[in-house]
Each structure stands twice: as C-alpha cells, then as structure tokens.
Design a protein that fits this description.
By secondary structure, this protein is of the alpha/beta class. The protein has helices at 18-24, 31-38, 40-46, 51-58, 60-69, 83-88, 100-105, 192-212, 435-438, and strands spanning 92-93, 113-114, 124-125, 132-136, 139-143, 147-150, 157-162, 218-221, 240-244, 254-258, 260-270, 282-286, 304-314, 318-323, 327-331, 334-336, 343-346, 351-355, 358-360, 380-382, 385-390, 393-395, 400-404, 410-415, 418-420, 425-428, 441-444, 447-449. The protein has an 18-stranded parallel sheet that branches. An eight-stranded parallel sheet has the order 6-10-12-14-17-20-23-26, with no helix packed on it. A two-stranded antiparallel ribbon has the order 2-3. The N and C termini lie far apart (114 Å).
C-alpha cells in the first residue's frame, strides 16, 4: 500500500527588514523623522544604498525636517534658500562631526595655503572659503590647537554658538514606576492599540533625546575619537565651554587673522604657556597675520570679531586682544579673572565697541613662581585706536579700570559705565590739550568710585557680596 504523498514544506519567508518596510510601506512624511533619529553618519550610508534613498536625500523636505529635528532651525527663523546647503553649513558637534576642527575643515578647500606667521612659527594655515556656522551642544570641549580664522572674501565668516535647545520638563509615567524620569513629547492616544504604540515610541524617543538633550559632555580635540570622550552628568550646563590644553606657547583659543568670527553664548577657559600677551597669550586674538619682518600683512578683509554673551577668562594672559588693525564688538559679555588685561586695544586702526559688558577682577597675574605674568593690569587698556564703552561694569581690576595711553591716537568714548573699586586708578586718560583728549568723551553719566558695589550688565555675572570692597 502506497503511502500518501506528503506536501512539500514551503521555506519560511524572511521577515521584512526595516529598510524594506520604509521603502514599501512607510509614509513619506515619517521617513525624514527616522533619518533625523538615525544620525548623519547613517544617513550618508543610506544615500548610497539605492535609488529610493538617493531620491529621498534629493528632496528638500527631507533636509528641512532634519534641520528642525536637530534644532538647527526653528519656527520664526528666516527660511534658507536651500535646506540641504543650510544643513551642511550648520554642522552640530558632536552629532555631525566629532570635533570642532573636523567641522571647520568643511569650510576649506582640500589644499592648504602657506602663510608665514612670525608670531607662532607655524607656516601652514587652512583658509576658510565659505561661511560656516558651528553649533555646539552645552558641555565642555577641550582644544589641543588654536582655532584659526583665515576667511577668504569680505562676507565669509565663522560662527560658533551654543545650540538653542528647548527646555524639556521631566515627566513620571504612573503606569511604569520602575522607569526613570525621562523627557518625553506629548502624545494623545485614542485607543488601547495606539497607547501600546505610544509607549514604544516614548521609550525610543527618550533614549534618542538623551543624546541630543542639554546634558553635560566633554569632547577631546585629539587625534582619535573614543566613546569615553563624552561624559554625561546629571547637571545640565547652560552653554558650551571651550577649554584650551595647548602644547605650543602663546596660543589663543581663537586667532582671527582675516575675515569675521562670530561667537554667541560661548564660555572660553584659556590657559597656555608663555608670556607674550601681545601676540597670542589671550583667549581671543584679533590680529592680521604677520610677515617675516613681524609686520602685519595687508588683506582684503580685516580681522573682525563679534562677541555676544561670551564668558571669557584667561588664566595665563589677556582676555580679548584687538591689535594691528583688529576690530571687535563685545556685547553682553563677561570678561573676568584674566592674568593680564581683560580687553586690550592697540595699534593704529584698531577699534572696539564694548556694550553691556562686565570687565571685573582682571590683572591678578598667572600665579606662576617663575616666568609667569605678574600682577598689575587694567580692565580695559587702550594703547592706540578707538574704544567705545557703553553701559558697562568695570570693577575690581588690579591696576586701573580703564586706561587710554597714547596722547596722539587713543580715542575713548564712555557713557553710563561704572568704574568702581579698581586698584590704583579708576580712569586714566591723556592730559588736557592732547589730540586724544580732545577727541575723547568720558563725561556722560559715568559712575567713578574707589569703593562700593557694582551692578552686573551682562547677566552672566552673579551680583555677590564679594563685589563690594
């Protein structure tokens, strides 16, 4: 008797993977959101996998969604002409690139321009040929080399700012008491099935948002990147802090040689070896490149720096230096605890506009027993050039509050400014009858006192009792 024929078993069908599902079934308006969560590195790989993904990345709506979800753009900002170009020229650290140096390289061509710089002996400089806006998550960034701004073209600029991330309040979900408090988005499910889906979405969203939220981290600007370079803490910082750890002597954090630097809501913690406070030992140095004879090189675009809500300290030298024709605008900043002068302006053609800024406790020396900076420097020192000081707090500096030195070319205009409890003198200006004195004006509602309490202007400095004499 013949046994009945057995029906051949069909091989099990492979489950549909996530990429196949996204290509066939996923709503098109959801795809950019998934890409934003996947990250730029994964997105770059996806762009090369198939025609479908290539077409996705050619769509401007994809890049708009990425800009919104990564907080590069928010409602109310001016809409860019190209979302794709806007995304690429607004790199986020450490999401798009691991270090500030890596991001800065995208503004340069592949070749390097050789420029001799007598100030630090480094002959090779990378030029920036297109404007770039670098966004930093709040946290600490340790730099091993100075950030050099050598922008080609009058309208080319480098902007570095802390990301404007939304404040997310923690929510405790009563249905899951063991789960930690997480920052989650508002979801309004309408059925039991949607509630289950919402729970899964919230769990993944909370994990992703951890990586992009206002939590402290530290990134080492060194050769290789390691996961240990990012450290999370429970106390969220309010801004990005750039810390110098230089081997070279007399190196600033930012050296502006040509073009424009814009800093917004950034803290600078500077220290380097050396005592040359004219040519590099400062948090920010705004100075044209020097030639072989140590004279400034002429260029089509003078070095400029626009600083807004910058907290600057140099434990080894000066805070901000504009020299040899450098130009700076300092608004709502906090320049404090510098070893030497807080703000220095020197050389013909140098200019500084200082508004709503606190310049306090500068000039106390570097504290080094041998070869360091000695105590005895001013809050603002105008050797040559022009300085406009409006509504500022200049107090508790070790030597003078404000000094204008040159009798021929030191023009100082100051109004509604407090000069209180500075060391040897509150205000030092050229004598009557000199060209500098005739062109200066320091009589507009200023408060000058050897003792008393100062009032913060920047909003970055806490008013404490130690500001009293």
């Amino acid at each position: 008797m013949r046994s009945p024929a057995t029906k051949p078993q069909q091989p099990p069908t492979a489950p549909e993977n996530a990429l196949s599902w996204m290509e066939k079934s996923c709503p098109m308006d959801v795809i950019p959101i998934v890409i934003a969560y996947a990250g730029p590195q994964t997105a770059q790989v996806l762009n090369q996998t198939s025609k479908f993904w290539h077409s996705v990345f050619q769509d401007e709506s994809t890049w708009k969604q990425l800009c919104e979800d990564l907080y590069k753009w928010k409602e109310g900002n001016k809409e860019p002409h190209s979302w794709k170009l806007f995304y690429r020229r607004s790199p986020c650290i450490p999401v798009d690139y691991r270090t500030i140096t890596d991001a800065l390289a995208t503004a340069s061509d592949h070749d390097e321009t050789t420029i001799h710089d007598a100030s630090n002996g480094n002959p090779r400089v990378m030029e920036q040929r297109r404007s770039l806006r670098i966004l930093l998550r709040p946290g600490e960034y340790v730099m091993r080399e100075a950030i050099v701004v050598q922008a080609v073209g009058e309208n080319t600029s480098l902007t570095v700012e802390t990301m404007d991330l939304p404040k997310i309040e923690p929510i405790v979900r009563e249905d899951d008491p063991e789960m930690e408090e997480e920052s989650i988005t508002e979801v309004a499910p309408s059925s039991e099935e949607s509630i289950s889906s919402a729970k899964k979405l919230l769990k993944h969203a909370a994990t992703i948002r951890k990586k992009l939220s206002c939590r402290s981290h530290a990134v080492q600007e060194a050769g290789n990147f390691d996961e240990n370079d990012i450290e999370l803490s429970s106390v969220p910082p309010v801004r990005a802090t750039i810390i110098s750890r230089f081997r070279r002597q007399n190196e600033p954090i930012f050296r502006v040689r040509q073009g424009t630097l814009v800093l917004k809501n950034i803290a600078l913690n500077h220290f380097c070896y050396g005592i040359d406070i004219w040519n590099g030992n400062a948090a920010i140095q705004i100075q044209p490149a020097l030639g072989a004879d140590e004279s400034p090189l002429s260029s089509s675009s003078r070095p400029r720096a626009y600083l807004h809500q910058v907290d600057a300290v140099s434990r080894s030298g000066r805070g901000i230096v504009a020299i040899d024709g450098g130009i700076c605008s300092i608004t709502r900043c906090y320049v404090h605890d510098c070893a030497a002068t807080g703000i220095y302006v020197g050389g013909p053609g140098s200019r500084a506009l200082i508004q709503e800024t606190d310049v306090v406790k500068n000039g106390n020396g570097s504290g080094q027993r041998r070869g360091g900076i000695a105590r005895g420097h001013s809050g603002i020192y105008l050797e040559q050039g022009c300085a406009v000081v409006r509504n500022c707090n200049i107090s508790n500096n070790s030597l003078t509050g404000v000094s204008a030195v040159s009798q021929e070319n030191a023009i100082l205009n100051m109004e509604e400014t407090d000069l209180i409890a500075n060391g040897a003198m509150q205000l030092e200006i050229p004598p009557l009858g000199t060209p500098s004195r005739e062109r200066s004006n320091t009589e507009n509602s200023n408060v000058v006192a050897t003792s008393g309490r100062s009032r913060s202007r920047s909003g970055l400095m806490e008013e404490t009792e130690d500001m009293e004499e």
